[in-house]
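Bench notes, afternoon.
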Amino acid sequence: MGLTIDRATYDAIVAHAKRDHPDEACGVVAGPAGSDRPERFVEMVNAAGSPTFYEFDSTDLFQLYKEMDENDEEPVVIYHSHTATEAYPSRTDIGLAMEPGAHYVLVSTRDWAEAGGGNNEAPVEFRSYRIVGGEVTEEEVTVVDALPARN
């Protein structure tokens, strides 16, 4: 199946990863429950403030889940960046993956940073995975101008 994401959300995730470099960035893209539609971009703070680890602030995460519950939403995408390694889940990432229905997006800013960071045009690596029961499956990412209208 894969992940279909709109260009604005893709760009927002990449911009967040670049802005927080050299620390890992993290966040969620919520969508209507059961829809697999990443619609509401929620940039989170990496409470760990680390270049090798991310951690959602527990108060912020509780508030986000409360909002999602009130709006009949779920986390469609859970994203974070890797600053010095490829965009592939670490053992820690796999162990922390608790949303079997979510797309786990990883953005590597390694090549971008090695090219000087800032406003350079060096690419970032943007990959998506399903992580269920410790099993990692990479999936295709399709970036569209806009998501199709809801049914």
